Protein backbone atom coordinates (compact mmCIF):
# COMPACT_ATOMS: atom_id res chain seq x y z
CA UNK A 1 0.00 0.00 0.00
CA UNK A 2 1.38 3.41 -0.95
CA UNK A 3 1.52 6.09 1.72
CA UNK A 4 -1.10 8.80 1.61
CA UNK A 5 -0.35 11.47 -1.00
CA UNK A 6 -1.36 15.04 -0.42
CA UNK A 7 -3.79 14.89 -3.36
CA UNK A 8 -5.82 12.08 -1.64
CA UNK A 9 -5.72 13.57 1.80
CA UNK A 10 -8.90 15.66 1.55
CA UNK A 11 -10.99 12.57 0.93
CA UNK A 12 -9.20 10.72 3.70
CA UNK A 13 -9.79 13.42 6.30
CA UNK A 14 -13.37 13.85 5.21
CA UNK A 15 -13.89 10.12 5.58
CA UNK A 16 -12.36 10.24 9.04
CA UNK A 17 -14.63 13.08 10.12
CA UNK A 18 -17.79 11.69 8.54
CA UNK A 19 -17.45 8.12 9.74
CA UNK A 20 -15.83 8.42 13.12
CA UNK A 21 -17.68 6.84 16.04
CA UNK A 22 -16.41 9.60 18.29
CA UNK A 23 -18.22 12.91 18.28
CA UNK A 24 -16.25 15.71 16.61
CA UNK A 25 -17.38 19.30 16.82
CA UNK A 26 -16.21 22.82 16.84
CA UNK A 27 -17.66 25.74 18.77
CA UNK A 28 -17.03 29.36 19.65
CA UNK A 29 -15.85 30.39 23.08
CA UNK A 30 -19.44 31.16 24.07
CA UNK A 31 -20.28 27.55 23.27
CA UNK A 32 -22.25 28.15 20.05
CA UNK A 33 -21.73 25.11 17.85
CA UNK A 34 -20.14 25.79 14.53
CA UNK A 35 -19.48 22.36 13.08
CA UNK A 36 -20.48 18.81 14.02
CA UNK A 37 -19.81 15.39 12.51
CA UNK A 38 -22.57 12.83 11.83
CA UNK A 39 -21.80 10.98 15.07
CA UNK A 40 -22.54 14.21 16.95
CA UNK A 41 -25.79 14.73 14.98
CA UNK A 42 -26.86 11.15 15.74
CA UNK A 43 -26.09 11.63 19.40
CA UNK A 44 -28.06 14.86 19.70
CA UNK A 45 -30.77 13.42 17.48
CA UNK A 46 -31.13 16.46 15.24
CA UNK A 47 -30.02 17.39 11.71
CA UNK A 48 -26.94 19.52 11.32
CA UNK A 49 -28.63 22.90 10.64
CA UNK A 50 -30.56 22.60 13.93
CA UNK A 51 -27.47 21.62 15.81
CA UNK A 52 -25.64 24.67 14.61
CA UNK A 53 -28.10 26.92 16.37
CA UNK A 54 -27.43 25.21 19.71
CA UNK A 55 -24.95 26.10 22.39
CA UNK A 56 -22.93 23.37 24.01
CA UNK A 57 -24.59 24.28 27.32
CA UNK A 58 -27.99 23.34 25.79
CA UNK A 59 -26.96 19.70 25.59
CA UNK A 60 -24.87 19.54 28.76
CA UNK A 61 -26.23 17.88 31.90
CA UNK A 62 -26.63 20.35 34.79
CA UNK A 63 -23.96 18.59 36.84
CA UNK A 64 -21.39 19.23 34.10
CA UNK A 65 -22.14 22.90 33.48
CA UNK A 66 -19.32 24.01 35.81
CA UNK A 67 -16.79 21.88 33.97
CA UNK A 68 -18.05 23.23 30.63
CA UNK A 69 -17.70 26.81 31.84
CA UNK A 70 -14.14 26.10 32.94
CA UNK A 71 -13.36 24.55 29.57
CA UNK A 72 -14.67 27.54 27.61
CA UNK A 73 -13.37 30.28 29.91
CA UNK A 74 -9.83 29.04 30.09
CA UNK A 75 -9.60 27.82 26.53
CA UNK A 76 -7.38 30.73 25.51
CA UNK A 77 -5.02 30.14 28.41
CA UNK A 78 -2.19 28.06 26.95
CA UNK A 79 -1.43 26.56 30.36
CA UNK A 80 -4.96 25.28 30.92
CA UNK A 81 -5.60 21.54 30.44
CA UNK A 82 -6.90 20.48 27.07
CA UNK A 83 -9.13 17.71 28.34
CA UNK A 84 -12.51 17.74 29.98
CA UNK A 85 -15.06 15.15 31.08
CA UNK A 86 -18.57 16.27 30.27
CA UNK A 87 -21.92 14.58 30.62
CA UNK A 88 -24.00 15.45 27.59
CA UNK A 89 -27.66 14.68 27.17
CA UNK A 90 -28.47 12.87 23.95
CA UNK A 91 -31.52 12.30 21.83
CA UNK A 92 -33.32 9.94 24.19
CA UNK A 93 -32.60 12.11 27.21
CA UNK A 94 -30.03 9.65 28.52
CA UNK A 95 -26.90 11.24 29.99
CA UNK A 96 -23.68 10.07 28.36
CA UNK A 97 -20.25 10.72 29.83
CA UNK A 98 -17.71 11.98 27.27
CA UNK A 99 -13.98 12.28 27.57
CA UNK A 100 -13.26 15.35 25.47
CA UNK A 101 -9.92 16.40 24.08
CA UNK A 102 -9.80 19.83 22.46
CA UNK A 103 -7.60 22.49 21.00
CA UNK A 104 -8.08 26.16 20.28
CA UNK A 105 -7.79 27.55 16.76
CA UNK A 106 -9.07 30.66 15.09
CA UNK A 107 -11.66 31.11 12.38
CA UNK A 108 -11.14 33.18 9.20
CA UNK A 109 -12.02 36.39 11.05
CA UNK A 110 -9.45 35.60 13.75
CA UNK A 111 -12.00 34.69 16.43
CA UNK A 112 -11.00 31.87 18.79
CA UNK A 113 -12.62 28.51 18.09
CA UNK A 114 -12.56 25.22 19.94
CA UNK A 115 -12.13 21.96 18.05
CA UNK A 116 -13.01 18.92 20.05
CA UNK A 117 -13.24 15.14 19.85
CA UNK A 118 -15.31 13.32 22.45
CA UNK A 119 -15.43 9.62 23.30
CA UNK A 120 -18.26 7.91 25.15
CA UNK A 121 -16.78 6.60 28.40
CA UNK A 122 -20.02 5.90 30.26
CA UNK A 123 -19.47 2.13 30.49
CA UNK A 124 -15.83 2.50 31.41
CA UNK A 125 -16.73 4.96 34.16
CA UNK A 126 -19.43 2.66 35.50
CA UNK A 127 -17.02 -0.27 35.54
CA UNK A 128 -14.37 1.84 37.31
CA UNK A 129 -16.84 3.00 39.92
CA UNK A 130 -18.04 -0.52 40.44
CA UNK A 131 -14.48 -1.69 40.86
CA UNK A 132 -13.66 1.08 43.36
CA UNK A 133 -16.79 0.33 45.31
CA UNK A 134 -16.08 -3.36 45.55
CA UNK A 135 -12.48 -2.71 46.57
CA UNK A 136 -13.73 -0.43 49.31
CA UNK A 137 -16.12 -3.11 50.54
CA UNK A 138 -13.33 -5.70 50.43
CA UNK A 139 -11.15 -3.44 52.57
CA UNK A 140 -14.01 -3.07 55.03
CA UNK A 141 -14.56 -6.80 55.13
CA UNK A 142 -10.91 -7.29 56.08
CA UNK A 143 -11.01 -4.54 58.65
CA UNK A 144 -14.30 -5.66 60.18
CA UNK A 145 -13.17 -9.27 60.31
CA UNK A 146 -9.91 -8.39 62.00
CA UNK A 147 -11.47 -6.06 64.53
CA UNK A 148 -14.37 -8.37 65.32
CA UNK A 149 -12.10 -11.34 65.81
CA UNK A 150 -9.73 -9.59 68.22
CA UNK A 151 -12.60 -7.91 69.91
CA UNK A 152 -14.32 -11.21 70.55
CA UNK A 153 -11.22 -12.44 72.33
CA UNK A 154 -11.21 -9.38 74.55
CA UNK A 155 -14.90 -9.83 75.25
CA UNK A 156 -14.34 -13.38 76.36
CA UNK A 157 -12.10 -11.98 79.07
CA UNK A 158 -14.52 -9.24 80.01
CA UNK A 159 -17.49 -11.60 80.14
CA UNK A 160 -15.62 -14.29 82.04
CA UNK A 161 -14.31 -12.03 84.74
CA UNK A 162 -17.47 -10.00 85.16
CA UNK A 163 -19.47 -13.15 85.81
CA UNK A 164 -16.82 -14.33 88.23
CA UNK A 165 -17.07 -10.98 89.96
CA UNK A 166 -20.85 -11.23 90.10
CA UNK A 167 -20.67 -14.71 91.62
CA UNK A 168 -18.17 -13.69 94.23
CA UNK A 169 -19.88 -10.47 95.17
CA UNK A 170 -21.34 -12.18 98.21
CA UNK A 171 -23.31 -9.75 100.33
CA UNK A 172 -22.31 -6.71 98.29
CA UNK A 173 -25.24 -6.11 95.98
CA UNK A 174 -23.72 -2.97 94.46
CA UNK A 175 -20.74 -4.97 93.23
CA UNK A 176 -23.00 -7.63 91.80
CA UNK A 177 -25.04 -5.00 90.04
CA UNK A 178 -21.95 -3.33 88.60
CA UNK A 179 -20.64 -6.65 87.36
CA UNK A 180 -24.00 -7.37 85.76
CA UNK A 181 -24.00 -4.05 83.96
CA UNK A 182 -20.57 -4.90 82.55
CA UNK A 183 -21.87 -8.30 81.53
CA UNK A 184 -24.88 -6.87 79.78
CA UNK A 185 -22.81 -4.36 77.85
CA UNK A 186 -20.33 -7.06 76.89
CA UNK A 187 -23.12 -9.36 75.73
CA UNK A 188 -24.52 -6.62 73.54
CA UNK A 189 -21.03 -6.01 72.19
CA UNK A 190 -20.65 -9.72 71.50
CA UNK A 191 -23.85 -9.65 69.48
CA UNK A 192 -22.49 -6.78 67.44
CA UNK A 193 -19.16 -8.46 66.81
CA UNK A 194 -20.96 -11.61 65.77
CA UNK A 195 -22.92 -9.62 63.25
CA UNK A 196 -19.69 -8.07 62.05
CA UNK A 197 -18.19 -11.52 61.71
CA UNK A 198 -21.17 -12.42 59.55
CA UNK A 199 -20.36 -9.47 57.34
CA UNK A 200 -16.71 -10.43 57.26
CA UNK A 201 -17.67 -13.99 56.29
CA UNK A 202 -15.70 -15.49 59.11
CA UNK A 203 -18.60 -17.04 60.99
CA UNK A 204 -19.48 -20.70 60.60
CA UNK A 205 -21.93 -21.56 57.97
CA UNK A 206 -23.47 -24.64 56.50
CA UNK A 207 -23.44 -25.77 52.91
CA UNK A 208 -26.60 -27.69 52.25
CA UNK A 209 -29.18 -27.37 49.48
CA UNK A 210 -31.52 -24.52 50.35
CA UNK A 211 -34.78 -23.85 48.59
CA UNK A 212 -34.81 -20.08 48.26
CA UNK A 213 -38.52 -20.09 47.48
CA UNK A 214 -39.24 -21.79 50.79
CA UNK A 215 -36.97 -19.35 52.56
CA UNK A 216 -38.82 -16.37 51.08
CA UNK A 217 -42.20 -17.85 51.93
CA UNK A 218 -41.13 -18.32 55.54
CA UNK A 219 -40.17 -14.67 55.80
CA UNK A 220 -43.39 -13.54 54.14
CA UNK A 221 -45.48 -15.63 56.46
CA UNK A 222 -43.53 -14.51 59.50
CA UNK A 223 -43.74 -10.82 58.73
CA UNK A 224 -47.32 -10.79 57.63
CA UNK A 225 -48.37 -12.06 60.98
CA UNK A 226 -46.13 -9.78 62.98
CA UNK A 227 -44.93 -6.42 61.67
CA UNK A 228 -46.16 -5.58 58.28
CA UNK A 229 -49.93 -5.36 58.43
CA UNK A 230 -50.13 -2.61 55.85
CA UNK A 231 -47.51 -4.05 53.54
CA UNK A 232 -48.72 -6.43 50.87
CA UNK A 233 -46.11 -9.08 50.21
CA UNK A 234 -46.14 -10.72 46.83
CA UNK A 235 -44.08 -13.80 46.09
CA UNK A 236 -43.61 -13.74 42.32
CA UNK A 237 -41.70 -16.92 41.56
CA UNK A 238 -40.73 -17.21 37.91
CA UNK A 239 -37.83 -19.59 38.49
CA UNK A 240 -38.86 -23.22 38.15
CA UNK A 241 -36.37 -24.35 40.78
CA UNK A 242 -34.64 -22.22 43.34
CA UNK A 243 -32.05 -24.48 44.95
CA UNK A 244 -28.77 -22.96 46.03
CA UNK A 245 -26.02 -24.37 48.20
CA UNK A 246 -25.69 -22.61 51.50
CA UNK A 247 -26.89 -21.96 54.98
CA UNK A 248 -30.68 -22.00 55.47
CA UNK A 249 -30.49 -19.77 58.54
CA UNK A 250 -28.38 -17.16 56.79
CA UNK A 251 -30.54 -17.25 53.68
CA UNK A 252 -33.55 -16.61 55.85
CA UNK A 253 -31.74 -13.68 57.45
CA UNK A 254 -31.02 -12.11 54.07
CA UNK A 255 -34.70 -11.92 53.16
CA UNK A 256 -35.72 -10.99 56.66
CA UNK A 257 -33.31 -8.03 56.76
CA UNK A 258 -34.35 -6.86 53.31
CA UNK A 259 -38.02 -7.16 54.18
CA UNK A 260 -37.63 -5.33 57.49
CA UNK A 261 -35.81 -2.48 55.74
CA UNK A 262 -38.52 -2.38 53.11
CA UNK A 263 -41.31 -2.22 55.66
CA UNK A 264 -39.42 0.58 57.45
CA UNK A 265 -39.31 2.40 54.13
CA UNK A 266 -43.10 2.06 53.75
CA UNK A 267 -44.54 3.55 56.94
CA UNK A 268 -47.82 4.16 55.13
CA UNK A 269 -47.98 0.75 53.56
CA UNK A 270 -47.16 -0.45 50.09
CA UNK A 271 -46.15 -3.60 48.31
CA UNK A 272 -43.09 -5.77 48.60
CA UNK A 273 -42.48 -8.11 45.71
CA UNK A 274 -40.09 -11.06 45.78
CA UNK A 275 -39.43 -12.03 42.20
CA UNK A 276 -37.23 -14.94 41.28
CA UNK A 277 -35.92 -15.98 37.90
CA UNK A 278 -33.15 -18.15 36.56
CA UNK A 279 -30.66 -16.13 34.57
CA UNK A 280 -27.52 -16.86 32.61
CA UNK A 281 -24.88 -14.35 33.69
CA UNK A 282 -21.62 -13.45 32.11
CA UNK A 283 -19.63 -10.29 31.63
CA UNK A 284 -20.16 -8.46 28.37
CA UNK A 285 -18.65 -5.28 27.11
CA UNK A 286 -21.55 -3.28 28.46
CA UNK A 287 -22.07 -4.98 31.77
CA UNK A 288 -19.28 -5.91 34.09
CA UNK A 289 -20.10 -9.17 35.88
CA UNK A 290 -18.04 -9.82 38.98
CA UNK A 291 -18.63 -13.58 39.25
CA UNK A 292 -17.82 -16.64 37.15
CA UNK A 293 -20.21 -17.01 34.22
CA UNK A 294 -23.05 -19.45 34.80
CA UNK A 295 -26.62 -20.09 35.84
CA UNK A 296 -27.77 -17.84 38.64
CA UNK A 297 -30.95 -17.41 40.60
CA UNK A 298 -31.87 -13.76 40.51
CA UNK A 299 -34.06 -12.63 43.39
CA UNK A 300 -35.40 -9.10 43.15
CA UNK A 301 -36.82 -7.69 46.35
CA UNK A 302 -38.73 -4.60 45.32
CA UNK A 303 -40.59 -2.20 47.59
CA UNK A 304 -42.70 0.87 46.88
CA UNK A 305 -41.16 2.87 49.69
CA UNK A 306 -39.42 6.20 50.10
CA UNK A 307 -36.37 5.23 48.07
CA UNK A 308 -32.69 5.81 48.77
CA UNK A 309 -31.10 9.18 47.91
CA UNK A 310 -28.47 8.71 45.16
CA UNK A 311 -25.69 10.18 47.29
CA UNK A 312 -26.00 7.51 49.97
CA UNK A 313 -26.65 4.52 47.71
CA UNK A 314 -22.98 3.66 47.60
CA UNK A 315 -22.77 3.55 51.39
CA UNK A 316 -25.76 1.50 52.48
CA UNK A 317 -23.84 -1.79 52.62
CA UNK A 318 -21.18 -0.37 54.92
CA UNK A 319 -21.32 -1.71 58.44
CA UNK A 320 -22.85 0.81 60.85
CA UNK A 321 -24.21 3.02 58.09
CA UNK A 322 -27.74 3.92 59.07
CA UNK A 323 -30.11 6.82 58.54
CA UNK A 324 -32.37 5.63 61.31
CA UNK A 325 -32.71 7.38 64.64
CA UNK A 326 -30.43 6.41 67.49
CA UNK A 327 -31.58 3.09 68.87
CA UNK A 328 -33.76 2.28 65.84
CA UNK A 329 -31.06 0.80 63.64
CA UNK A 330 -27.48 -0.30 63.99
CA UNK A 331 -26.69 -0.20 60.30
CA UNK A 332 -25.64 -3.83 60.24
CA UNK A 333 -28.64 -5.22 58.36
CA UNK A 334 -27.39 -4.69 54.84
CA UNK A 335 -23.76 -5.28 55.78
CA UNK A 336 -24.84 -8.71 56.97
CA UNK A 337 -26.85 -9.30 53.81
CA UNK A 338 -23.83 -8.29 51.74
CA UNK A 339 -21.53 -10.63 53.68
CA UNK A 340 -23.91 -13.56 53.40
CA UNK A 341 -24.53 -13.08 49.69
CA UNK A 342 -20.77 -12.88 48.99
CA UNK A 343 -20.25 -15.85 51.24
CA UNK A 344 -22.63 -17.82 49.05
CA UNK A 345 -20.69 -16.93 45.91
CA UNK A 346 -23.32 -14.36 44.98
CA UNK A 347 -23.68 -10.73 44.09
CA UNK A 348 -26.03 -7.97 45.20
CA UNK A 349 -27.06 -4.74 43.50
CA UNK A 350 -29.40 -1.94 44.46
CA UNK A 351 -31.42 0.43 42.36
CA UNK A 352 -33.70 3.03 43.81
CA UNK A 353 -35.74 6.03 42.88
CA UNK A 354 -36.74 8.63 45.45
CA UNK A 355 -40.43 8.47 46.22
CA UNK A 356 -40.92 5.41 44.00
CA UNK A 357 -39.13 2.58 45.76
CA UNK A 358 -36.09 0.41 46.00
CA UNK A 359 -35.11 -2.89 44.42
CA UNK A 360 -32.37 -5.14 45.68
CA UNK A 361 -31.27 -7.73 43.12
CA UNK A 362 -29.48 -10.75 44.51
CA UNK A 363 -27.73 -13.28 42.30
CA UNK A 364 -26.93 -16.70 43.75
CA UNK A 365 -25.31 -19.58 41.89
CA UNK A 366 -28.04 -22.12 41.12
CA UNK A 367 -27.39 -25.60 42.40
CA UNK A 368 -28.23 -28.72 40.41
CA UNK A 369 -30.28 -30.08 43.29
CA UNK A 370 -33.95 -30.34 42.76
CA UNK A 371 -34.81 -32.97 45.34
CA UNK A 372 -36.48 -31.45 48.35
CA UNK A 373 -34.19 -31.97 51.31
CA UNK A 374 -35.19 -32.50 54.89
CA UNK A 375 -32.94 -29.72 56.18
CA UNK A 376 -34.86 -26.89 54.69
CA UNK A 377 -38.32 -28.27 55.35
CA UNK A 378 -40.12 -26.90 58.35
CA UNK A 379 -39.77 -29.29 61.21
CA UNK A 380 -43.45 -29.33 62.04
CA UNK A 381 -43.50 -32.82 60.58
CA UNK A 382 -41.93 -33.92 63.83
CA UNK A 383 -45.30 -33.58 65.38
CA UNK A 384 -44.74 -30.77 67.89
CA UNK A 385 -47.97 -29.00 68.70
CA UNK A 386 -49.30 -26.45 71.12
CA UNK A 387 -50.06 -22.73 71.37
CA UNK A 388 -47.40 -20.44 72.74
CA UNK A 389 -47.62 -16.80 73.74
CA UNK A 390 -44.31 -14.94 73.35
CA UNK A 391 -43.97 -11.74 75.39
CA UNK A 392 -40.94 -9.60 74.59
CA UNK A 393 -40.46 -5.89 74.00
CA UNK A 394 -37.84 -6.42 71.31
CA UNK A 395 -39.28 -6.90 67.86
CA UNK A 396 -36.31 -8.88 66.59
CA UNK A 397 -36.58 -11.31 69.50
CA UNK A 398 -40.30 -11.78 68.87
CA UNK A 399 -39.59 -12.47 65.22
CA UNK A 400 -36.78 -14.91 65.80
CA UNK A 401 -38.57 -16.70 68.56
CA UNK A 402 -41.84 -17.07 66.73
CA UNK A 403 -39.98 -18.18 63.67
CA UNK A 404 -38.09 -20.88 65.53
CA UNK A 405 -41.21 -22.05 67.31
CA UNK A 406 -43.29 -22.13 64.16
CA UNK A 407 -40.58 -24.22 62.56
CA UNK A 408 -40.93 -26.65 65.37
CA UNK A 409 -44.63 -26.85 64.62
CA UNK A 410 -46.10 -24.66 67.36
CA UNK A 411 -48.75 -22.03 66.96
CA UNK A 412 -47.41 -18.68 68.13
CA UNK A 413 -48.92 -15.39 69.23
CA UNK A 414 -46.71 -12.47 70.18
CA UNK A 415 -47.16 -9.54 72.56
CA UNK A 416 -44.84 -6.55 72.72
CA UNK A 417 -45.45 -5.84 76.39
CA UNK A 418 -47.01 -6.94 79.64
CA UNK A 419 -50.32 -5.16 79.19
CA UNK A 420 -50.83 -6.57 75.71
CA UNK A 421 -49.97 -10.04 77.01
CA UNK A 422 -52.46 -9.81 79.88
CA UNK A 423 -55.20 -8.62 77.56
CA UNK A 424 -54.60 -11.53 75.23
CA UNK A 425 -54.22 -14.11 77.98
CA UNK A 426 -57.42 -13.06 79.72
CA UNK A 427 -59.36 -14.04 76.60
CA UNK A 428 -57.32 -16.98 75.43
CA UNK A 429 -55.82 -18.57 78.51
CA UNK A 430 -57.66 -21.82 77.95
CA UNK A 431 -56.13 -22.40 74.56
CA UNK A 432 -52.65 -21.08 75.48
CA UNK A 433 -50.38 -23.96 76.45
CA UNK A 434 -47.25 -22.01 77.29
CA UNK A 435 -46.05 -18.44 77.84
CA UNK A 436 -42.46 -17.39 77.14
CA UNK A 437 -41.93 -14.20 79.06
CA UNK A 438 -39.08 -11.73 78.98
CA UNK A 439 -38.00 -10.66 82.45
CA UNK A 440 -36.84 -7.15 81.65
CA UNK A 441 -39.28 -5.04 79.75
CA UNK A 442 -40.00 -1.34 79.92
CA UNK A 443 -43.42 -0.52 81.35
CA UNK A 444 -44.86 -3.57 83.04
CA UNK A 445 -41.95 -5.75 84.18
CA UNK A 446 -41.76 -9.48 83.56
CA UNK A 447 -42.33 -10.13 87.26
CA UNK A 448 -45.48 -8.06 87.41
CA UNK A 449 -46.77 -9.57 84.22
CA UNK A 450 -46.19 -13.03 85.65
CA UNK A 451 -48.14 -12.18 88.79
CA UNK A 452 -51.08 -10.96 86.76
CA UNK A 453 -50.97 -14.02 84.50
CA UNK A 454 -51.18 -16.13 87.64
CA UNK A 455 -54.23 -14.20 88.75
CA UNK A 456 -55.96 -15.26 85.56
CA UNK A 457 -54.64 -18.81 85.67
CA UNK A 458 -52.79 -19.90 88.83
CA UNK A 459 -51.16 -22.83 87.04
CA UNK A 460 -49.98 -20.89 84.01
CA UNK A 461 -47.25 -22.82 82.22
CA UNK A 462 -44.31 -20.52 81.83
CA UNK A 463 -40.71 -20.14 80.70
CA UNK A 464 -38.87 -17.02 81.76
CA UNK A 465 -36.29 -15.64 79.42
CA UNK A 466 -33.63 -13.03 79.77
CA UNK A 467 -30.72 -11.60 77.90
CA UNK A 468 -28.78 -11.40 81.12
CA UNK A 469 -26.68 -14.13 82.58
CA UNK A 470 -28.45 -16.95 84.36
CA UNK A 471 -26.64 -16.10 87.63
CA UNK A 472 -28.00 -12.59 87.69
CA UNK A 473 -31.66 -13.54 87.40
CA UNK A 474 -31.77 -17.01 88.91
CA UNK A 475 -32.54 -15.65 92.35
CA UNK A 476 -35.53 -13.75 91.02
CA UNK A 477 -36.65 -16.72 88.95
CA UNK A 478 -36.56 -18.92 92.03
CA UNK A 479 -38.42 -16.38 94.12
CA UNK A 480 -41.15 -16.35 91.55
CA UNK A 481 -41.41 -20.10 91.78
CA UNK A 482 -40.63 -20.64 88.14
CA UNK A 483 -38.37 -23.50 87.26
CA UNK A 484 -37.87 -22.88 83.62
CA UNK A 485 -35.52 -20.30 82.29
CA UNK A 486 -33.86 -19.79 78.92
CA UNK A 487 -31.18 -17.34 78.12
CA UNK A 488 -30.95 -15.12 75.08
CA UNK A 489 -29.62 -15.45 72.49
CA UNK A 490 -31.52 -18.70 72.04
CA UNK A 491 -29.95 -21.69 70.50
CA UNK A 492 -32.46 -23.57 68.45
CA UNK A 493 -31.82 -26.86 70.24
CA UNK A 494 -31.99 -25.34 73.74
CA UNK A 495 -35.24 -23.64 72.92
CA UNK A 496 -36.72 -26.79 71.40
CA UNK A 497 -35.81 -28.81 74.48
CA UNK A 498 -37.05 -26.25 76.97
CA UNK A 499 -40.37 -25.89 75.19
CA UNK A 500 -40.86 -29.62 74.73
CA UNK A 501 -40.13 -30.18 78.41
CA UNK A 502 -42.46 -27.42 79.54
CA UNK A 503 -45.28 -28.77 77.39
CA UNK A 504 -44.73 -32.33 78.54
CA UNK A 505 -45.49 -31.34 82.14
CA UNK A 506 -48.54 -29.36 81.14
CA UNK A 507 -51.26 -30.00 83.65
N1 LIG B 1 -35.69 -0.71 51.21
C1 LIG B 1 -35.11 0.44 51.60
N2 LIG B 1 -35.69 1.63 51.31
C2 LIG B 1 -35.11 2.80 51.68
N3 LIG B 1 -33.94 2.88 52.37
C3 LIG B 1 -33.32 1.74 52.68
C4 LIG B 1 -33.86 0.47 52.33
N4 LIG B 1 -33.02 -0.49 52.77
C5 LIG B 1 -32.00 0.16 53.38
N5 LIG B 1 -32.17 1.50 53.33
C6 LIG B 1 -31.25 2.52 53.86
O1 LIG B 1 -30.00 1.90 54.13
C7 LIG B 1 -29.63 2.11 55.48
C8 LIG B 1 -28.84 0.92 55.98
O2 LIG B 1 -29.67 -0.23 56.07
P1 LIG B 1 -29.28 -1.38 57.10
O3 LIG B 1 -30.28 -2.46 57.02
O4 LIG B 1 -27.84 -1.75 56.86
O5 LIG B 1 -29.32 -0.65 58.50
P2 LIG B 1 -30.60 -0.15 59.32
O6 LIG B 1 -31.85 -0.75 58.76
O7 LIG B 1 -30.52 1.32 59.38
O8 LIG B 1 -30.30 -0.76 60.74
P3 LIG B 1 -30.42 -2.31 61.19
O9 LIG B 1 -30.76 -3.10 59.97
O10 LIG B 1 -29.07 -2.65 61.71
O11 LIG B 1 -31.48 -2.31 62.20
C9 LIG B 1 -30.92 2.37 56.22
O12 LIG B 1 -30.71 3.13 57.38
C10 LIG B 1 -31.73 3.12 55.16
O13 LIG B 1 -31.36 4.47 55.11
MG1 LIG C 1 -32.00 -2.82 58.41
How would you describe the overall organization of this protein?
The chain is of the alpha/beta class. The protein folds into 4 domains: 110 residues, Beta-Lactamase (2-Layer Sandwich); 75 residues; 167 residues, Heat Shock Protein 90, CATH 3.30.565; 127 residues, 3-Layer(aba) Sandwich (Rossmann fold). 41% of the residues lie in helices and 22% in strands. The N and C termini lie far apart (103 Å). Bound molecules: adenosine-5'-triphosphate and magnesium ion (MG). The site of magnesium ion has 5 residues, from helix 8.
- Which structural class matches the secondary elements? alpha/beta
Q: What compounds are bound to the protein?
A: adenosine-5'-triphosphate, magnesium ion
Overall morphology: elongated
Helicity, as a percent range: 40-55%
Distance between the termini: 103 Å
Can you name the CATH architecture of the largest domain?
2-Layer Sandwich
Let me know the number of strands.
17
- Radius of gyration, taken over Cα atoms and rounded to an integer in Å: 32 Å
Looking at CATH, the homologous superfamily of the largest domain is Histidine kinase-like ATPase, C-terminal domain
- Within the largest sheet, what's the order of strands? 2-1-5-4-3
Largest sheet: 5 strands, antiparallel
Average pLDDT metric: 85
**Contiguous uncertain segments of 5+ residues:** 372-382
Top CATH class of the largest domain = Alpha Beta
What is the CATH topology classification name of the largest domain? Heat Shock Protein 90
**What is the oligomer described by this structure?**
single chain
- Number of domains as seen in the coordinates: 4
- The amount of beta strand, in percent, is 15-25%
Amino acid sequence: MTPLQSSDSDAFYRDLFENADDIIFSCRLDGLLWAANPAMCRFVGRPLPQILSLKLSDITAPASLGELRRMLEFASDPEAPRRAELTLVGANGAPVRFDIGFRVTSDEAGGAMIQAIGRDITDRKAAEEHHCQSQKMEAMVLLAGGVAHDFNNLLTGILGYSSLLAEQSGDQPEIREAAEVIQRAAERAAQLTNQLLGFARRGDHQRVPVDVHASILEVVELLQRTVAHNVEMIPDFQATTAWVLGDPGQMHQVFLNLALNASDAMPNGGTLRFRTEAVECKATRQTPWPLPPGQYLKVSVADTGVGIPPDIQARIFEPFFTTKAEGRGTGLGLATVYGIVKNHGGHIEVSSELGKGTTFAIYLPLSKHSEPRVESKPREKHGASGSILVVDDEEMVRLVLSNMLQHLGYKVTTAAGGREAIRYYREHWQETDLVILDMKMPGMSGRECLLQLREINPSVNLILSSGYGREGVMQEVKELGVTRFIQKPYRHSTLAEAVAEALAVKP
